Amino acid sequence: MWTPGALKHVKAIGWFIEEYGVTQVTMNLTNIKETPFHIAFDETAKAAAARGVRVTGSELIGLVPKSAMLEAGKYFLKQQERSTGIHESELIKIAIKSMGLEELSPFNPQERIIEYMLEDGEDKKLIDLSLTGFADETASESPAPGGGSIAAYVGSLGISLATMVANLSAHKRGWDERWEEFSNWAEQGQLLKDELLFLVDEDTNSFNKIMEAMRLPKGSDAEKQARKDAMDAATKYAILTPFRVMETSLKSMDVIQEMAEIGNPNSVTDAGVGALCARTAVIGAFLNVKINCKDFEDTEFVTDILAKGEAVMAKAIAKEEAILKITMAKI
């Protein structure tokens, strides 16, 4: 029997297909926020099991929002008592497998998820490059990516290591009852990692905005003023972007320290290396904040952001020292 009210936003019909010997339930979901499609699938599977029938798979007609696939992946991982703090591509794989979305035909996320379809025509990002390609692009004569993007990338590696420790701890033998605790830490790590990866390209974009402003015409007084306004806005953004790297990398050190203290002891050195990366990201980003402040005329803003930057850097250095002390004590 269906659970009353379990599927409030579903229009469905089912019938037996004699030539295939199967029953099909066709659904229209009118509000996937209130009734997610993984819940509709799961309730159908439960109702079928109560009648001694097994749901073998499902088919999605049209496109689906990425958020719906990610929620589905997390839902099925939680049912397995496994960490949900994994990359979105892995969450999507879990959703596809758990709902049997490839039962009737291949399910290609790049062709079926709305956001991936929209991204298809966009310019390639730095983070889409291979490790070798990213290093080669950095080493080229192009001024970007520069130190700010590298600082953000180093920071993403630091929190990635801590996230790995969280996931390993969630699945450590004998720690079964702690899987959710470490899963929550891994999810925090994934969010910080994604933010820092975004900032890898955003730092380069902020540099490009300055270049675009510099190319604006400056013949008349009006053009000169418009160019100056654009330069000021672009420079301010180029200051705030690496400062955002600083703040995010400092936040990542809370996760890193926690993993050094309570995570799988076999991976404590990974947390230690993560701390080194995070400290490097903070200091490296601060160098970019300072150089971009050099000729900025808003002295009040400059004084304030530099003071904040000094404070963030001091906290990061202290955090790194504390994490390394924990690490050294355990090896």
Report the order of strands and helices: EEHHHHHHHHHHH
Q: Biggest sheet, open or closed, and with what strands and sense?
A: 2 strands, antiparallel
Shape: globular
Total DSSP E strands:
2
Mean pLDDT: 92
Report the top-level CATH class of the largest domain.
Answer: Mainly Alpha
Please state how the strands of the largest beta sheet are arranged side by side: 1-2
| Proportion in β-strands | under 5%
What would you give as the CATH superfamily of the largest domain? Formiminotetrahydrofolate cyclodeaminase monomer, up-and-down helical bundle
First-residue to last-residue Cα separation: 56 Å
How many domains make up the coordinates? 2
As a whole number of angstroms, the C-alpha radius of gyration is 25 Å
Question: What is the level-2 CATH architecture name of the largest domain?
Answer: Up-down Bundle
How much helix is in the residues? 55-70%
Number of helices: 11
Low-confidence stretches: none
CATH topology call of the largest domain: Four Helix Bundle (Hemerythrin (Met), subunit A)
Structural class: mainly alpha
SSE map:
Blueprint: E1 10-17, E2 22-29, H1 37-50, H2 66-79, H3 88-98, H4 109-112, H5 114-119, H6 131-139, H7 147-170, H8 179-214, H9 221-262, H10 268-293, H11 299-330
Antiparallel strand pairs: 1-2
Helix pairs in contact: 2-3, 7-8, 7-9, 7-10, 8-9, 9-10, 9-11, 10-11
